[in-house]
Structure formats: C-alpha cells, structure tokens
Structure to design on (324 residues):
C-alpha cells in the first residue's frame, strides 16, 4: 500500500502563500475557545491539542486553551462536550477511544457519535509502540509471546484506561497471538508510563506520541509498532504485522469535533483554518516526529473515517468479549 503524505501538497502550498486567516468575514467565535481533552496532561491526545491550541490562538485572535477532563477512556470529556452550545467555543480533541471504541464497549453511553457531534478535522493517525522497561527479559515480540504462553494471565500490559486504544491493541494482540495477559488500566498515559518506567508493570502498547520521548531517552525499549507500515519516526522498529501477524493494525488517531448542529459556515471556516495549521512546517514536523500521519482534509472525510473505525473496533470488542 502506498503511504499517503501527512498533508496534501495543496495544503502546503496554501501555507506557503501565507494567506491571512482573517481575509474574509469570519464566522468564528469571538469568545475564548476551550479544547477539551479526555486524558491527563502528557498523553498523546493532550500533546496534539496543545500543538493546535497555540497556533489557533494566534490565528483567531482569542484565547484557545486546553482543558483536561480525564476519566473512562475519554468518555467523560466527550459526554461533557456533547452537551455544550454549538457556538464553537467548546471543542473536543477526540480520539479512537471515545469516538470509535466506547460505542461498542459502554452499553449506557451518554452520547451517540453520529447524533451528538460535528466532525471538524482529522488531526493525525499514529502507530502505538509496544514498549517495555529495559530490565524486561523478553524484548522481542517472539520472546514476549513465548513469555505470555509460559505464564498465562500474569504478564501485565498497562493502558491509559479501559477502552483506550492501548487497551484494544492488547486485546487484538491476545486474539492474534492466541495468548493470555493481564490488562492494567490507568487514569491516563502519564501515570501508566511512570509505572512502566519504574517496573511496576511489564509492557504497554502506548501511543507513539507519548512513548517517543521515553524511548529516545533510553528509559523504555520499543519492540514493535502497530500500523501496517513502519513510521518514518521510528524506521528501525518493526511492525507487528511483519513479525508474523499480517494485517495487524492498531493505530491511535486524533481529531477535532464540536457539539452537534454547529453552523455549516463555521464548520467550513474552522476546517480550513485547521488545515492551514496542520500545513505549517513547524506543526507538520512536530506531528511527524510523533508518527502522526494522514491528517487534514475535509470534515466529511473525517466523518467517514470515524464510521469505518467504529465498525472495526466493534468487531474486536465482540470477538475478545471485552466488558467494562
């Protein structure tokens, strides 16, 4: 499969032209804007939100802040944003957890993805990295599978929470490798990574965004990555697919959404500005360093992407018999 560019060349050309964001009459909110994140500071979703917020504040001429509402794999934040006014002042940096996995996992979810949100833009798709503390004896996928089979149900895998992308990557790995392991959910990637570095848990399929600094520093070791092709951010790390599990794809993705029924002209203008931000060389380089690819495009593209992801992970939840 031919790898797609992170940002289309047309977007880059737009950025190069330095078109002012306020060139036309603006349907944007004039009050401060909050981007709500469903996880504590330090995780991948939080990092993506802060990269966007800084640029948008400058572009829109109003404060754009990040507000962390952690809990339930991002569901608490999503439920909160779904109930906010559709005036563009409260947005959600959503991800795979609250928009694709939660609908299949929570029988009494307080929102319906298609009904209660307005997709705005896909920010990026990143692999997860299968990581461990350097003290772990099993430091290849082959050895890890053997360890899980030798000690079924005892090798621990941390995640940022039940229903998070890391959790689903574990469940998919268990299904494909036919092993049993113990899932240990945390309240966000930050505390999970602290315990992983400290040796309190054994492994994690952590987002490349938040795992990369710790792998670069040598505090953690990357065994594999989880998209079908290797990310240019970690070209030396093999994919799970190429290590004997063809088709294994457990990506994390991030995107901006607002409450339902946002004015179409506001949606269009926000989408255009988000694409301009994503095309900025420093932003593109920052996201690429974390393995974030395939971002940008129309709001309709993001809507279709969400629908595909929902179907995919509903099947994994069903096959793995995952319950909350």
């Amino acid at each position: 499969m031919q790898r797609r560019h992170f940002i289309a060349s047309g977007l880059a050309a737009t950025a190069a032209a330095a078109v002012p964001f306020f060139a036309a009459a603006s349907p944007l909110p004039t009050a401060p804007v909050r981007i709500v994140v469903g996880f504590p500071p330090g995780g991948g979703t939080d990092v993506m939100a802060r990269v966007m917020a800084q640029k948008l504040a400058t572009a829109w001429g109003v404060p754009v802040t990040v507000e962390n509402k952690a809990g339930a794999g991002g569901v608490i934040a999503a439920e909160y944003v779904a109930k906010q006014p559709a005036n563009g002042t409260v947005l959600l940096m959503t991800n795979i957890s609250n928009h694709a996995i939660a609908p299949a996992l929570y029988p009494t979810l307080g929102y319906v993805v298609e009904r209660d949100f307005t997709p705005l833009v896909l920010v990026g798709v990143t692999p997860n990295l299968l990581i461990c503390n350097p003290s772990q004896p099993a430091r290849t996928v082959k050895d890890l599978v053997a360890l899980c089979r030798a000690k079924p149900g005892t090798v621990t895998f941390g995640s940022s929470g039940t229903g998070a992308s890391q959790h689903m990557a574990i469940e998919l790995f268990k299904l494909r490798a036919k092993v049993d392991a113990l899932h240990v959910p945390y309240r966000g990637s930050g505390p999970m990574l602290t315990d992983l570095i400290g040796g309190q848990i054994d492994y994690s399929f952590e987002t490349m965004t938040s795992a990369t600094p710790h792998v670069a520093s040598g505090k953690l070791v990357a065994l594999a990555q989880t998209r079908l092709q290797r990310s240019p951010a970690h070209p030396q790390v093999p994919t799970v697919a190429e290590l004997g599990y063809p088709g294994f794809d457990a990506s994390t993705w991030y995107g901006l959404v607002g409450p339902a029924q946002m004015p179409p002209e506001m949606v269009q203008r926000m989408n255009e500005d988000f694409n301009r931000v994503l095309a900025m060389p420093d932003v593109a380089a920052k996201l690429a360093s974390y393995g974030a690819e395939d971002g940008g495009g129309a709001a309709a593209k993001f809507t279709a992407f969400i629908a595909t992801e929902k179907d995919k992970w509903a099947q994994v939840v069903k096959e793995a018999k995952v319950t909350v």
